[in-house]
Design goal:
alpha+beta, 5-stranded antiparallel beta sheet, 53% helix, elongated
Amino acid sequence: MVFIWSPHTFFGDLGQEWLSDLQQFLHVGLPKLLFIAAGAWGLILAVNFVTAKIIQVAEQRKRLAAVRTGQVRTVASVVRATGITIVVFLAVLQIMENVLHFDLAPLLASAGVAGIALGLAAQTIVKDMLNGILILVEDQYTVGDVVTLAGMSGIVTSMTLRKTTLQGFDGTTYVIPNSQITNVANQSREIISSSVSVSVDFSASPDEVIPLLSAIAMEVRNEPAYRQVFMEDPKVLGIDSIKGSEVIYLIQVKTQARQQFEALREMQRRIRLALEAHRMLPGSPYRVLQHPGQAGAALAGETAGAMAAVDPTMAKPNEVNPFSGQ
């Protein structure tokens, strides 16, 4: 039997096979593809709706503080990104198996081995994600908090499972992997306990300084602009330390988070003016005070000692001017 190749027959058969495959795809593959895409799109819309609803409910509840609202917003954004990634990944696997007819068993086995190798090679990334989950679950900080992380201070602008982004007070942006966050100093909780140290000279009587500081602190606390900032009345704890002629008085203030700075600055301004009005000098650890009587006795003793220290045998003879005789 002799086979005679004909271009017309070859391309005709090829066209018939392509047409048959196209018909099969339109009849079976395309509906599956549309069904998988519609299902994935519906799941993505559901994830977006649920996370947006959670944020909306958290913002509408006035009893929730701003810190809790930021925490809910952060968790919702992480859940949204993770959910969309999982939905897209599952949709791609379904398309490969049901539409493109790939055998996923060898692919998944290879992916498992590659995943183990990648996990061993990327231990830092895995540690970042695990630490990020713990940070969210334990509510260590959220977006908008003023924190100190890994020696960097600033405001948390964004947060993911792998990294935290801070904006420093000078405008610098810091990107910190979550695995490097071992200690967290959060300055944005609901109540902040601050202290004001006032340095006054040793000559001022504590019985006059303490009532003066108490009056100024209560004056600032009762101001309409700062009335809602203070959580309770300021307390003058008394003398905290004495260094040379410097006496440190300590004032304890409890305010709302991230709202204490302006009130404390105003309090220190008024303390400065009040000390000047009452003629109270600021303290200095290098200034030495002496009693007035002791100062005169000490000066006389130093003069007598200096005179006694001069040896009369070593004094120079008086010189006489031969021209004037003087």
